[in-house]
């Protein structure tokens, strides 16, 4: 395990807490820079070295990371993209967006520019999966249940749509039932996508959720992620299964996620991202 002090830039979900626990177990020094309105204080822990900033305070955040002595940085957990009115940028953030220009319109361009900005400050940005090495799913069935012929056809259809959307830097997830695209992910995120699809379920075999890494994606940040809540929401939406990008996505709380999927009759599979519709 590297001994460089790890700065954890914490968004929502369980990943920041998982990283904190991994650092404690390995003895690696760490510091949490938590994003207000997104990070979970209870999961991070009151005794963790930490600072809290709002989204528009890049200058304060970078200064806190330097003062804490961080060398490596990892960005973990979803962050809802703010409007400019919500952002209220400090001088450093305003300068960053002015320099970014049209690249700020897409998530991929924004994240790549953010990584370049942090590395320009002397930090080394690493991926979550380089620290939590058990998170990336393998190819094939991951739980007890497996997709049937219809589900495999729906997965292939969703993969084709995901690849097109991803190339346009739109989203990472698609829901397909019986060959019909029920919904695609944009800025709202996967949970909201699944909630929308509840009212669109058709009679007959349930659909599938497919989450793929974008073709041009910077894989150190924003990998497609599935956890226990995704499983619950997929079942509530009437789906039969979830397909994840093998080797290029994150399966949070693997045992709990797959255990819940097994109990609810939902399949979870790793796919290559190259599946072709029949």
UniProtKB/TrEMBL annotation:
Ranges of residues in domain LpxI C-terminal: 140-269
Q: Which domain of life is it from?
A: Bacteria
Q: Which residues form the LpxI N-terminal domain?
A: 5-135
InterPro entries named in the record: LpxI, LpxI_C, LpxI_C_sf, LpxI_N
Q: Which Pfam families does the entry link to?
A: LpxI_C (PF06230), LpxI_N (PF17930)
How is this protein named in the record?
UDP-2,3-diacylglucosamine pyrophosphatase
Q: Which organism is it from?
A: Caenispirillum bisanense
Taxonomic lineage from the root: Bacteria, Pseudomonadati, Pseudomonadota, Alphaproteobacteria, Rhodospirillales
């Amino acid at each position: 395990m590297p001994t460089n002090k790890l700065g954890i830039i914490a968004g929502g979900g369980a990943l920041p807490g998982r990283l904190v626990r991994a650092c404690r177990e390995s003895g690696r020094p760490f510091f949490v820079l938590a994003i207000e309105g997104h990070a979970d204080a209870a999961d991070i822990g009151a005794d963790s070295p930490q600072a809290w900033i709002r989204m528009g305070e890049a200058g304060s955040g970078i200064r806190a990371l330097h003062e804490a002595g961080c060398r490596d940085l990892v960005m973990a957990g979803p962050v809802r993209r703010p409007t400019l009115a919500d952002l209220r940028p400090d001088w450093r953030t305003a300068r960053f967006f002015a320099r970014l220009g049209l690249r700020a319109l897409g998530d991929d361009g924004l994240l790549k520019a953010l990584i370049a900005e942090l590395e320009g400050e002397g930090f080394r940005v690493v991926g979550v999966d380089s620290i939590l090495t058990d998170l990336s799913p393998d190819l094939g069935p991951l739980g007890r249940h497996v997709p049937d012929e219809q589900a495999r056809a729906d997965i292939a259809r969703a993969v084709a749509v995901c690849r097109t959307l991803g190339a346009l830097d739109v989203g990472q997830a698609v829901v397909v039932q019986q060959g019909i695209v029920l919904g695609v992910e944009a800025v709202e995120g996967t949970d909201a996508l699944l909630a929308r699809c509840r009212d669109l379920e058709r009679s007959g075999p349930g659909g599938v959720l497919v989450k793929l890494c974008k073709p041009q994606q910077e894989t150190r940040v924003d990998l497609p992620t599935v956890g226990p809540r995704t499983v619950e929401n997929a079942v509530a939406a009437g789906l039969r299964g979830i397909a994840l990008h093998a080797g290029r996505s994150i399966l949070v709380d693997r045992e709990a996620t797959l255990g819940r999927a097994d109990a609810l009759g939902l399949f979870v599979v790793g796919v290559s991202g190259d599946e072709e519709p029949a």
